[in-house]
């Protein structure tokens, strides 16, 4: 890409003079762009590779009030986007976050004062604080409270549950997210001055109208806590329950009657949470006697530990299943029988369920990839069971708003919000997380909470943010060093995150473990440093000094540069045209003379060989930082 003729010296400050290129630069750093709170994942994994763990933690924690939770159970959209995945496998970003959290996060034993230093201050404390009510203590509510408290507002979180944490507490099983860690994360938010009123259900104990009248602003973060059910014959029988009801009772320690033969309906991660939990816990939500014996005789007891027969039926084939591959693998290891391409047809039995009648699936998606399952008539079969758990999704329960609430509701029965501010149609009332967008993931809810906090602060004080400042570092031609030069760079495989051996798994014990220091550093060294860009210097006014020698294309080890005659360029999208240097005439693409350098960004490993080879110095390697992160990024780049 071109720098549009902006004169950039080493460490020049640049404050978004060209928003189009700014957007390009941000999107060209895929792990950050994919993270809803824009975590600088590439930066912190590279800092870990350098042994700078404290700095790595600062970078990981700054934008994320629930960094420790995310180190354990984040759905890690960054990994799906990671450019290293184009070469072999993405960086194990979540496991790397856990690695630094264990040293400096809430679970590390450091004091809350020390952790406070790592938290990003969204805005300085306001002169006049407001009273804000937050309904729901899930990730959206907690993140909003965290930021509002740092901005000096008086915040109270109301939650119907007797414990805080939302689905992180009521849904996610303990063997994935230790409860002491979640408690510490929430205690830190308490330490910031947030008041929690637990066991208080809005709509039952306090009306929404009264709550609103008593506060300057309200944030609705009530999630999706109602399990979806199916219109099946027999669905009302004893022994049929939804995933969220099952998990919430289990996680709250409420005794459950789930029997010995359980069938779980669903193919997503929640279905696996249910199936793996059902396998761990029997007819009650307490571990059985045998489970307590594990310490005495692990091998013998473990063979009985996971002994409830649990079958999971999914409409999808294994490849189509929405669940993470690790969940499917671990579920299978723990003895869950998985039957693909089977849907529920009827629930049989008298008072209590005795079997699930299933029907074979012909296809799950239509020609356009839309979910539209079709079944094979006459293919009914029965699976004997005493419990059926439906894990087919969750919906919001908006009854707490009462009648005549005046808030616009979407056709999907979520709360309608302004996409930028999260304001609802009622002044001073904001909404975010699952109740506004339907079931998503923790980090998306955290991002909403943070966004809502800024909007609420703006509503109460009139303050807004100054534009983000950026720093560009231009490397001298031979001053750029990259892990590629080490030689083994491309061949280092992704580190496998260690897991607890099956014979040592206790019902509540965490299954995934932490990378060792050696493994974490090796994993970090696989990062491509996507915040460094190859900049091809040209401008519509001065032209370019490129002599079209093709040296860059020749030297590139990934063959990602191509020198293409203009006459071969046949179509240009509007979006690409918009990225042209300011003032470049569109007719340039109709010319018969000349050539363009095309670069496949997905393949570039940032080795810098093209910049070294270029005889006219037209290509430079340039790092692009958000200003507050620049000092740490300098450290992350000191790779050799
Ligand atoms: C079983 C399960 C496992 C999951 N695992 C993961 C995972 O591993 N990784 C991941 O990224 N995401 C996961 N998710 C998704 C994630 O948990 C949610 O997207 C996220 O918690 C939504 O956050 P939220 O703040 O919007 O709402 P929630 O977390 O749902 O919190 C809403 C809170 O509001 C309270 N509330 C509701 N109504 C009222 C009322 N009227 N009065 C007072 N309080 C009320 C509820 O009690 C609840 O505590 C999982 C979801 C489930 C169901
Ligand atoms: S290679 Fe590194 S910088 Fe690039 S997307 Fe992956 S983690 Fe981020
Ligand atoms: S930095 Fe390396 S991989 Fe990227 S374009 Fe230049 S030579 Fe090719």
Task: Itemize the secondary structure elements and their pairings.
Blueprint (H helix, E strand, L loop, with lengths): L11 E3 L4 H9 L2 H5 L6 H10 L2 H9 L5 H7 L3 H5 L11 H12 L7 H5 L14 E5 L3 H12 L3 E6 L7 H4 L8 H13 L3 E4 L9 H6 L3 E4 L5 E2 L12 E3 H10 L8 E5 L3 H12 L8 H4 L5 H8 L3 E6 L10 H9 L3 E4 L1 E8 L3 E13 L5 E5 L5 E4 L2 E4 L3 E2 L33 E3 L2 H4 L4 H20 L8 E5 L42 H8 L7 E5 L14 H5 L5 E5 L8 H5 L16 E5 L9 H5 L5 E8 L3 H8 L3
Parallel strand pairs: 2-3, 2-5, 3-4, 5-17, 7-15, 8-9, 8-15, 9-10
Antiparallel strand pairs: 1-18, 6-16, 11-12, 12-13, 12-14, 18-22, 19-22, 20-21
The structure holds flavin-adenine dinucleotide and iron/sulfur cluster (2 copies).
Write up this protein.
The chain has 640 residues and is α/β, with parallel strands linked by helices. Among the domains are: 124-225 and 396-464, FAD/NAD(P)-binding domain; 226-394, FAD/NAD(P)-binding domain, CATH 3.50.50.60. The chain is 30% helix and 17% strand. The strands form 6 sheets. It has a 5-stranded parallel beta sheet, covered by helices on one side. Strands 7-15-8-9-10 form a 5-stranded parallel beta sheet. It has a 4-stranded antiparallel beta sheet with strand order 1-18-22-19. The protein is globular, with a radius of gyration of 27 Å. Residues 1-19 and 283-305 have low confidence and may be disordered. Bound molecules: flavin-adenine dinucleotide and iron/sulfur cluster (2 copies). The site of one iron/sulfur cluster has 15 residues, from α23.
